[in-house]
Automatic annotation (TrEMBL):
Family: Belongs to the 2-oxoadipate dioxygenase/decarboxylase family.
The keyword Transport is annotated on this UniProt entry: no
UniProt-recorded name of the protein: 2-oxoadipate dioxygenase/decarboxylase
Organism of provenance: Shewanella inventionis
EC number annotated for this UniProt entry: 1.13.11.93
UniProt keywords, alphabetically: Dioxygenase, Iron, Oxidoreductase
Amino acid sequence: MHTDVNTLFAELWQDYIKMTPSAAKIHQLLGHGAAIINDHIALRTFNIAKVNLSVLAKHFTSIGYVDCGDYKFEQKKLVAKHFEHPDPTQPKVFISELLVEEFSPELQKTIQGLIEQVDVAATTADNFIYSGRHWELDKATYKSLLAESEYAAWVAALGYRANHFTVSINDLPQFERIEDVNQALKDAGFVLNTSGGEIKGTPEVLLEQSSTMADKVVVNFTDGDAEIPSCFYEFARRYPMENGKLYTGFVAASADKIFESTNAMM
């Protein structure tokens, strides 16, 4: 496993920008040459022992990250945790897993079949969380998963990698309000996720979030290539708690809508 948090995130970023070509353009648009601070990344998986949330989490807890919160998404049949590093300038990590047993026998069998193809040794390798797909997948299987769970189809097609990075609006030199960030993105031609409104959350819940809709990339299936939604970019503005420190958690109702950034179309 990685020993250095900066190296790990640099590798995650390199993989992410391959899947999310718009990210580099958004950096230029919002950063005006200044460094963009990453608020958090998100990872997706299945609750199957070989690849479950805790397997992914070890890649972060081994370099000092600690578990800081639990979340449940009833409708999407997901649970999640978020992790923070003792150094508050390091990105937070949000890891979710699909509750496979809550789906149809067909979906369960499909997912079990995919995970059986994963070499258990690969899951502890340095690069596992940005290693992509470890199994064969055809278009029909992808479509059948998509009919039941967009999340399941996404993980099946794209495997292990950051589902999104997040611009910390609090650290942007030229922008203070999330509304202004959203407007700049729209003016530049980016499509925002409007599920539950362009802005998820409020100052009252101490977190406002928005996101682009996922880029489309060509993915190799066993029976040919197809263009599907890949990864997206999120934008987060955090507000101070009563003790004056910025809120570092997540809001389940908002995250629920952010997940929909990888839907094929709103």
